[in-house]
Amino acid sequence: MLEVKDIHTYYGDSHVLQGVSLEVNRGEVVCLLGRNGAGKSTTMKSIMGLVPPRRGHIFFMGEETTGLPPYRMVKRGMAYVPEDRRVFPHLTVEENLEVAHIAARREGRWTVKGILEVFPMLERLRHRKGGHLSGGEQQLLVIARALLANPTMLLLDEPCEGLAPIIVEELEKVILEIRREVTILLAEQNAPFALRVSHRGYVIEKGRIKFQGTREELLANEEVQSRYLAL
Amino acid sequence: MEDRTILSVENLSKAFGKFYAIKDVTLQVPKGEITALIGPNGAGKTTFYNVVTGKYKPTTGRIVFEGREITGLPPHKTARLGLGRSFQITNIFLENTVEENILAALVAYHGRGLSLFRGLNAYRDLKEEAHEILEMLGLADRAREVAKNLAYGDKRLVEIGIAMAGHPKLIMLDEPTAGMTPEETDRMVAMIQGLFQETGITFFLTEHDMKVVFSIAHRILVLHQGSLLAQGSPEEIRNNPRVREAYLGGSLDA
Amino acid sequence: METLLINILNGLCYGMLLFIISMGLTIIFGVMGVLNFAHGSFYMLGAYLCLWLAPHIPGFWLALVVAPLLVGLLGALSEVALLRPLYGRDVSFQLLLTFGVLLILDDAVKLIWGPGYHSMEAPRVLAGTVPILGSTYPVYSLFIALLGPIIAGVLWFFFHRTAWGKMIRAAAMDREMASAIGINVPLLFTAVFFFGTFLAGMAGVLAAPLRAVGPAMGDNIIIAAFIVVVVGGLGSFLGAFVGAIILGLVEALGVQLVPQLQMALPYILLALILLVRPRGLFGRE
Amino acid sequence: MVRGARTIALAAGILFLFVYPRFAGAFPVLLLTEIVIFALFALSFNLLFGYTGLLSFGHAAFFGLGGYAMALLVQHYQLSMIPALAVSMLVAGLGAAIIGFFCIRRDEIYFAMLTLGFGMMVFTLVHQWRSLTGGSDGITGFEVPLLDLVVKKFSLFSPWAFYYFALVVCLLFTLFLWRITHSPFGLILRSMRENAERVSFIGIDIKFYRWIAFTLAGLVAGVAGGLFAMYDRMASPTMVHWTMSAKPVLMAILGGTRVFLGPALGALIFYLLEHFITQYTQSWMIFLGAILVPIVIFFPQGVLGTLISWGRRLKGREDHGG
């Protein structure tokens, strides 16, 4: 479904991604593991078109999408949950959801009403401003917002960051629930969490993929664990 | 006790609206040691830095540095008293050269900022000192490079260099190894340990990487949801069940 | 007493004009981060177009629709052709560029319509005066003072109840994220610039029967509009409304109460508010 | 190589400024006088904008204060040139110190708006205080004072004499600004432009430094204003209006704010454009605008800044080739 071929991405002069390649098949949850600054978020942003790569190719659903702006990616079925959550702070929960639904213009399972039923916590907070939610609530809102594009694939960038363990458990349930319908690429520092919900994983370090394998392979490889993941 | 403590914080709170980023934190930082403050993202570490160094005014509480109350003093005053800090997000003067980055801090420390009519090049002593600092950081050959062209790890070193150039009595590092590769992290840890042994400055740091924390800190403080959860020696923290439960999870087993 | 009332009405009338202009300015700034120096010139252009169109199409009311559309189109065109290459560059370049547009428009107007001042009749329905407390007051001014709140209501509805309005607000808060949920941001920017300059043009048309139409009218109003949006809080809807009323009243009452200082009053207001409230009355940090 | 080219260009430029007018008619000399004065005005503005990161939109206030002070001193007290200019400089500096005290409390767009506000208050003051300033007519009808160099007095009546006087004064103050920007103080200013918050964490009171920079910039703008009033034989409210404040902004960005002499080159380009366009048409603004727009788009660092970076790139290519 998604194929990233040897992309090189820069921030100004600094060469952040130095040839990242990865693949995600339909129905999979694939995690991208690595430390802060290893290039996880940049990979996600490159795929989404927020920071287009200077070299390399990205194929989504069989077509090349390298360099397409984010809104065109959304139209093709890609949704993105950014690392720092980024709800629209002065829009209410409901407006945050509405805007996403209107903007994406993709019909499918999810509607604003439907999603509020699935996330009862958001239903209770529907008139609250996005900026007045707690971190966990914001995280749920942003995932719900992404789902309203009725995506075929979801990019989840560090959903656990800064969340209390109880919320992380909640999040785990949500991901396990939606992965039945949506293909997911998950960037995480929290390897135990990521490996609980993923089928396969890549380890990224210094802008390069250092290791890839199934969940079992990653769990079994001690060198990877101690060297890259600090488990 | 009194003279062993360089920084003492009493009942410190900082609220943003209704949300308390720091709640009633009391702690002491002993002189001549490396103290680490740990806690999950969002625990309030950076807010703690910002309140202590004067970027934010605390909502309540008292901060005493070297026996002198500094509560609410602005950053330029706390810096002049000897409180140096580095930032989590690289925070240097990107369009200036590496040397100028360090020189700016030296100019400030030596009180030469208001010298208008003598060229910078005439200040041999400052240049030499800047050179020494760059040498110490291993950046001497990059002195004339514009800072924005440095590699990420080197930018982080410049960050430390700016803080060191202020001749601090207490240096507060905010995640010095954030985003670094293992090699860069090792280099940074060695650098911190080297600086500590050479200068005897008191270090205070926050850090994500538990290996780093447990290898260099003499004392560890754990912040959780804005409150101090525990403090003690690395051994005590390692074995504290509340800490393990709330934050560390499995990550201490390495 | 009557003069006071008359002056308050004058203030409200001028304030409402300022509100419409400032609203355009503040939307453009809020969403795109561009401080549009040429905004006053678009306002001026609206007035001239009204002057020119009203006899042709015929009528003021049609001009009220057509002229702002033309101004908005010109605005959209200049956004696409001139501003687009500058996004991501230092803000000062956008300022300079819109200043260049201001120079062009100001001189173009002089070339086409001459350097002199023109005046225009109010539309027939709104011509004449009404008695108020023993003196008389022009119906047209009263109409503007009442139209302002109506337009404010319409704009409020647009921003809070319509899909486009909500998308514009979302893009104002976080441009990158707006794109990442599927909003076509370049198109939205053009639309916003169209809409902002449309409002400027509309204010120009409304001002045409009220104030002298001349080449300097844009340069005078742009500074007033800057003051309004800064006093109110950059990007704030409510701020533009309240700021415009305050500035309108300050100017109108200043004429009566402290005539020597009247010219300086808006600036004194600006300085005082900024020194007390760094982000304006309704500004967000 | 770039450095060598720069030295040569600079020497050639100064040589031209001294030699050319000896062989030129009155009109080019007058034009050149205005350029030199405005170059200094733009350079003083750029101490704030390019070096400290503060966009002042009221810099004409100090230009105007200098001009009015000069005109009043010459008209009422018959001061000779240098003392009159010195006092005007101090008056403008004092004005800048007072206004700066308030303005430096805010930054970015809010600083720009505050300076605009205070600048226009000064405008209102000179516009309304008829008895002192002549209101909208300004102050006219004074003689250009003698240049009293103790051993000898010179008349500055001829365009040539005044030009050389203005040139020397402007070069001296340009040198003064250059010295400042290359001093430790200048380094702190540049660091504040890069990252003001970080500067406060190295122990610098950024407000105080901004205030000093603001005052110095006002001081030098006052010199430019004083010269301009003598050049124009008039001090008028247009000298203080915001449209006058817009000029150095325009010139500095046009020439390049990150290069010391960028604003001076900007002033030159501005006046040459004005001069050549007005020969052909009354509506020179439309052409200025039409030229400004592509310059803004294609010279992202201003003309001089972009030229220098092209030079560097060229040099880089040569180095690689050799």
Per the CATH scheme, the topology name of chain D is ABC transporter involved in vitamin B12 uptake, BtuC
Series of secondary-structure elements of chain B, N-terminal to C-terminal: EEEHEEHEHHHEHEHEEHH
Strand ordering within the main sheet of chain D? 1-4
Biggest chain contact: C-D, 39 and 39 residues
The helix count of chain D comes to: 13
**What is the H level of CATH, i.e. the homologous superfamily of the largest domain in chain B?**
P-loop containing nucleotide triphosphate hydrolases
Helical proportion of chain B, percent range: 25-40%
CATH class category name of the largest domain in chain B? Alpha Beta
**Helical content band of chain D:** over 70%
Query: What class would the helix/strand composition of chain B place it in?
Result: alpha/beta
Q: Tell me the CATH architecture of chain D.
A: Orthogonal Bundle
Shape of chain B: globular
Radius of gyration of chain D: 20 Å
Biggest sheet, spatial arrangement of strands of chain B: 6-7-8-3-9-10
Oligomeric description of these chains:
heterotetramer
Overall, the morphology of chain D is: globular
CATH topology grouping of the largest domain in chain B = Rossmann fold
Counted up, domains of chain D total 1
Structure, explained:
The complex is a heterotetramer of chains A (about 230), B (about 250), C (about 280) and D (about 325). Helix content of chain A is about 40%, strand content about 25%. With about 230 residues, chain A is an alpha/beta fold. Chain A has a single domain (about 1-230), classed as P-loop containing nucleotide triphosphate hydrolases (Rossmann fold), CATH 3.40.50.300. Chain A is globular. By secondary structure, chain B is α/β, with parallel strands linked by helices. In chain B, helix 3 (about 100-110) packs across helix 4, helix 3 (about 100-110) runs parallel beside helix 5 (about 150-165) and helix 4 crosses helix 5. Chain B is globular. Chain D is mainly α and about 325 residues long. Chain D has a single domain (about 1-320), classed as Orthogonal Bundle (ABC transporter involved in vitamin B12 uptake, BtuC). Chain D is built from 13 helices and four strands. A two-stranded antiparallel sheet of chain D has the order 1-4. A two-stranded antiparallel ribbon of chain D has the order 2-3. In chain D, helix 7 (about 160-180) packs antiparallel against helix 9 (about 205-230). Chain D is globular. Classes of the chains: A alpha/beta (about 230), B alpha/beta (about 250), C mainly alpha (about 280), D mainly alpha (about 325). Chains in contact: A-B, A-C, B-D, C-D. At the A-B interface, helix 10 of A face loops of B.
Jot down its keywords.
heterotetramer; C: 285 residues; mainly alpha; 2 strands; 72% helix; D: 322 residues; ABC transporter involved in vitamin B12 uptake, BtuC; two-stranded antiparallel ribbon; 76% helix
